[in-house]
Write a structure and sequence with these properties.
Number of domains: 2
Radius of gyration: 20 Å
Strand content: 15-25%
Distance between the termini: 23 Å
CATH superfamily of the largest domain: Jelly Rolls
Structural class: alpha+beta
Shape: globular
Helix content: 40-55%
Length: 297
């Protein structure tokens, strides 16, 4: 998820160090301000779970689909699913993440049965990658934050390690339960896939959600509600993120004036463009351009 240069700035723990071989590593990532990272794609032999506690972040997949995650939500990236932070920039946020080991490489998992661990991995990421964090899961994440801040955990305190294992077990089970709820709602994923295909086929056009919904055989309100439930945001918000993504590419690869880019992509003025841009990325277009230039050098 984070790239080695980001991991170095945040505390992480190896699952093997606390007797949990099914977890490769886990930890917290906090960004007080927007931070540039690499554009390289990331994937893991096992699934990755990212819980956004405050702020928001957005990833993209190889097919250009976006995975936006707001505070109070988490994303599940299946094993070997390539992904990267969109626009090469982490917005201000606080998150907890887990990278799992591949189930075929773990003979004796500690938190789940062998069959349970295999099923957990097989089901992750089906019918949507984004889910709400339930209260029990959020409490367990808060407990993990407390434990990781206690220096005794790093000297091998048996009690604290046992508490940490219990909290991790709760997080995994709650994530599994959230995924199980999505699996029960199979029919509506086809609608979302059809809508995303329309959107990505012409991302620069002005999207009329009502017209697209009618073309697909549904009402605007039904499409809006289904999209929000499965993707975690409204269709118009998703379309706006795609537009910002294309603006970022232009900012990073050309010297065009910000005002010209704003007008070309339909924002009307550089002032409005800057407000919308900062809403999603936590920085202004000019600052983003500077960060990308520094990153390249």
């Amino acid at each position: 998820m984070l790239g080695s240069q980001i991991l170095d700035l945040n505390t992480s723990i190896s699952g093997a160090d606390i007797g949990v071989p099914e977890i490769k590593t886990f930890g917290f990532a906090t960004f007080q301000k927007a931070m540039a990272t690499t554009d390289s794609w990331t994937s893991h032999g096992g699934p990755e779970l990212v819980f956004v506690i405050e702020g928001e972040a957005c990833w993209e997949l190889e097919d250009e689909a976006l995975v936006p995650v707001s505070g109070g939500q988490f994303a599940l990236f299946p094993a070997n699913k390539k992904h990267r932070i969109v626009n090469g920039l982490y917005p201000p946020s606080h998150s907890f993440w887990i990278v799992m080991a591949n189930a075929t490489n773990v003979a004796d998992p500690a938190l789940l049965t062998r069959d349970g661990f295999r099923d957990f991995q097989n089901y992750l990421g089906r019918r949507g990658l984004t889910h709400d964090i339930e209260a029990r899961c959020m409490d367990a994440i808060g407990e993990l934050h407390r434990l990781m801040s206690d220096p005794r955990i790093y000297t091998g305190s048996s009690l604290l390690i046992a508490e940490m294992r219990a909290a991790l077990h709760t997080v995994l089970i709650e994530a599994w339960k959230a995924q199980d709820k999505k699996l029960a709602d199979r029919d509506n994923s086809a609608l979302i896939d059809d809508f995303l295909e329309v959107l990505h086929s012409d991302p620069d056009s002005e999207l009329n959600i009502g017209e697209v919904a009618t073309r697909l055989g549904y009402s605007r309100s039904y499409l809006h509600n289904r999209f929000r439930k499965e993707v975690g945001m409204s269709p118009s918000d998703y379309a706006q993120r795609l537009r910002i993504k294309r603006c970022c590419t232009r900012l990073a690869t050309t010297s065009e004036p910000v005002t010209d880019i704003a007008v070309e992509f339909g924002f009307g003025s550089s002032q409005y463009f800057s407000r919308v841009f900062k809403k999603y990325l936590g920085t202004t277009p000019s600052e983003y351009r500077q960060q990308m230039a520094i990153r390249e050098h």
